[in-house]
């Protein structure tokens, strides 16, 4: 048995790639994402400040379209490198007995919400990342699983694939049952995330996301609440909307429960802060 990890610097800024990838995609074919209509109304101040911090406040759509085109070329270049790995497995007769997993550490705004790269903004653009698995004889080719999972779930997954016990200290769950097409009794219905940033001073964030809603706790600023079914572009912050008071409370309870279960160091004072924000 073997475990091989290949890391690629990309797709990532600067979006500089060789031909034919550099001119593979036409900026004229790039459509504006719905989130490009961002106004930052009712959002934490850091969102708009980040445009200036990144130096993209004056970018027009033509500039972004060119960046997106280059970004897509970068993605295609990485895809071609992954193809080389798959072909090598075939050449060595290992493809039928090797599980291949493709993931990323984060996404990229590339103009979404008029933003660049990533930062203290917990939108799906950067937090909903690719996760693809080829596992011959186990995963049905072309199948799709919509269950929410965490990136660190891969650690427990790899251990179970290798027949090893998952340490009880792991705050992760193996994805093997989902990959095998099983229907676990305790299916995950939400995911959580942390951000420990230093933009404009210490900027601490926590996030909980279900299929229908996303709640973001922002330490130094107002929190965020999005109705992902009615507003998938996450343009309208509903944190103070009276019609979503019950949703806000339920999402906060989920977040605090998770912080307690994972022994988050902020768990000692965040619940009190949230009560004061009601």
From TrEMBL:
Tell me the Gene3D superfamilies matching this sequence. Alkaline Phosphatase, subunit A (3.40.720.10)
Spell out the GO cellular component terms annotated for this protein, sorted alphabetically and separated by semicolons: cytoplasm
Highest taxon of the lineage: Archaea
Q: Which GO terms describe its molecular function?
A: metal ion binding; sulfuric ester hydrolase activity
Asked whether the UniProt record includes Hydrolase among its keywords, one would answer: yes
- Domain (N-sulphoglucosamine sulphohydrolase C-terminal): residue spans on this chain: 111-257
Q: State the UniProt keywords alphabetically.
A: Hydrolase, Metal-binding
Q: What is this protein called?
A: Sulfatase
Could you tell me which species this protein originates from?
Natronococcus amylolyticus DSM 10524
């Amino acid at each position: 048995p073997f475990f091989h990890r290949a890391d690629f610097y990309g797709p990532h800024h600067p979006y500089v790639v060789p031909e034919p990838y550099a001119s593979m995609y036409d900026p004229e074919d790039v459509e504006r994402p719905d989130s490009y209509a961002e106004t930052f109304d009712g959002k934490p101040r850091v969102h708009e400040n980040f445009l200036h911090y990144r130096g993209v406040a004056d970018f027009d759509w033509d500039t972004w379209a060119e960046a997106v085109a280059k970004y897509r070329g970068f993605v295609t270049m990485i895809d071609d490198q992954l193809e080389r790995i798959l072909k090598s497995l075939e050449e060595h007769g290992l493809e039928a007995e090797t599980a291949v997993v493709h993931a990323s550490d984060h996404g990229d705004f590339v103009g979404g919400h008029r933003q660049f790269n990533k930062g203290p903004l917990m939108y799906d653009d950067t937090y909903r990342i690719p996760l693809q698995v080829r596992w011959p004889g186990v995963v049905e080719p072309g199948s799709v699983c919509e269950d929410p999972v965490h990136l660190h779930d891969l650690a427990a997954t790899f251990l179970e694939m290798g027949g090893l016990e998952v340490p009880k200290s792991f705050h992760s769950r193996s994805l093997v049952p989902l990959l095998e097409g099983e229907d676990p009794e305790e299916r995950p219905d939400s995911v959580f995330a942390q951000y420990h940033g230093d933009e404009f001073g210490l900027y601490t964030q926590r996030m909980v996301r279900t299929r229908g809603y996303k709640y973001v706790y922002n330490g130094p600023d107002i929190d965020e609440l999005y109705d992902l079914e009615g507003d998938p572009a996450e343009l309208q912050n509903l944190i103070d909307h009276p019609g979503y008071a019950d949703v806000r409370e339920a999402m906060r309870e989920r977040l605090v429960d998770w912080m307690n279960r994972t022994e988050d160091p902020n768990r000692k004072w965040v619940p009190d802060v949230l009560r004061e924000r009601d």
